[in-house]
What we know:
Chain A is mainly α. Chain A folds into two domains: 3-124 and 141-215, ABC transporter involved in vitamin B12 uptake, BtuC, CATH 1.10.3470; 282-385, Arc Repressor Mutant, subunit A (Orthogonal Bundle), CATH 1.10.10.10. Chain A is built from 16 helices and four strands. In chain A, the strands form two sheets. Chain A has a two-stranded antiparallel sheet. In chain A, strands 3-4 form a two-stranded antiparallel sheet. In chain A, helix 7 crosses helix 8. The longest helix of chain A is centred in the middle third of the chain and has 40 residues, at 183-222. The model of chain A has no long low-confidence stretch (mean pLDDT 86). A six-stranded mixed sheet of chain B has the order 6-7-8-3-9-10, with helices on both faces. In chain B, a hairpin with a 1-residue loop joins strand 9 (208-213) and strand 10 (215-221). Chains A and B meet through helix 7, helix 8 and helix 10 of A and helix 4 of B.
Amino acid sequence: MSSPQIEIQIIAAVVAMACAIPGVFLVLRKMALISDAISHSILPGIVIGFFITQDLNSPLLILFAAFVGVLTVVLVEYIQKTGLVKEDTAIGLVFPALFSIGVIMISKNAGDVHLDVDAVLLGELAFAPFDSMMIDGTDWGPKSLWIMGSILIVIISLLLLFFKELKVSTFDAGLSASLGISPVVIHYGLMSVSSITVVGAFDAVGAILVVALMIAPAATAYLLTEDLKRMIVLSIFFGVLAAISGYWFANWLDASISGSIATTLGIIFLIVYLFAPKKGLISVLYRQKQQQIEVSLITFLLHLNRHDEKRERHINHLREHIDWQEAKAQKVLNLALKNNLVEIENDIVFLTEKGLTFTEKSLAYIIENKHEKIDSMKDDFFLFRG
Amino acid sequence: MGEKIAVKVDDLTVAYNYKPVLWDIDLTVPEGVLMAIVGPNGAGKSTLIKAILGIIKPIAGSISIFGEPYAKQRKMVAYVPQKGSVDWDFPTTAFDVVLMGTYGSLGWIKRPGAKEKKIALESMEKVGMLSYRNRQISQLSGGQQQRVFLARALAQDASIYFMDEPFQGVDATTEIAIINILKELRKTGKTVIVVHHDLQTVPEYFDWVTFLNVKRIATGPVKEIFNDDNLTKTYGINYKVAVNK
């Protein structure tokens, strides 16, 4: 690996980490679209900032553009508060307006500005290593790495300091307010951090990838864990994984690095969406199928419980009586046998002690719908895992 | 009943988009009562609680908790929002939600330690949810979720408890369990204020009541003021018809 190759991967990984953390809270607050809005509407901020500073990496430009990002959120909320339109409509009204102002500014000043809309939207990671931080003639490495590294350190510090506050205000804003942990302060803090991250990252990776890096890792992690801390760690992991493997994907295809990273994020999400142990599609379908069998099992056990007559318990008769197909009847019977719920003597099916208790408990659960009744059975059966 | 005044509201007006939902409310709640706030849908019951707790900014009026502004008295007040106001798919456990009750006394930045965790566990024990402490909150039944909220309020160890429809969507057993805990709180001198929907249980559950319908109709002991006259004023229909339905 050449040194620019390594640098590109490090930059991509740092951007991914910086985006993943605010991304988790945006996803949990159901504000994913806001990151899209911010990433576009900062354009006029960048252009005006560039007119003033003549430097795309100036901290002043970043702050200026981030201010426009926060302004976007304020405008969206203001329009929403009028009660005339819903939130998604408000977002759809605000960011194209701000974005188009930026586009007009660029096209009016195309001669003097080394800035084009494509670069803002798509970025170009491949060039990032060659834009170095020069201090007194010494090369201190890529500028974007310095910028995103600083932003990442700020984000991690804020997360460690305000984790408790972020958690409670995201979960329950009302309680948070009554406790004196102002959800408004946290909200605008998060919006400011998101805006700064987007602005800092757009030059290296483009506005579209920023959105992907904020939302996809968090959405993927959400499918895998039920713990907020783990969700953050997993988001960072998926972001970095996509950044590195996306880079090699691009290398192999000889295509846009940003595009490849975003595609990789999509693929990772798809894989997790399909195979996640609890919330994944396959696991959900499997569980539904399993539940179907277990409902049949309980039906079968109830039938045995209600009928003492041998005629009703004969193995052949059961099939006809409950009116199941051979395969299904066999499956249910096997399941009952495997769990020691029934015994077969001379082709007559009997409920065992365990089978009897199970049936009674199931009945109580079905009638009263009380989870306490079946707590002890949850390990054995899918049906009762809620 | 203590002589102290727990909550005092003067001339409170709250509006959404310039339409008043609470109009010129005066309310005095003595310490140590278990009070229901009743009124029809849209009467501003939840809004009244939220305004007292500073969650909604009123356009006029003042509020005091034991004689001081709410901002000074936060630690004396616990709040149980409506169960439906939060996302129960949030990645966290029952214990973690209860632990949030201690965040107010911690203030900003400081993290919960052994002392806070002990308080949270004790509160879960009181509502019979200790064995569910590690369960993800989406896997709790409606009644269990409400108990978790109640435990969180207990963890706040307050003098005044505000609850927004704690009986909504819970089964009869949980309802009885909750009301018993609330009565227990009153016995220890706490003040409990509950937004309540079911008129029939008011005399059985509460000793004080406030009738509210944008304006305050009446406040006082249930025995004295829970009558057809006030009910008709509040609901605008004959009370007996409403109850017999």
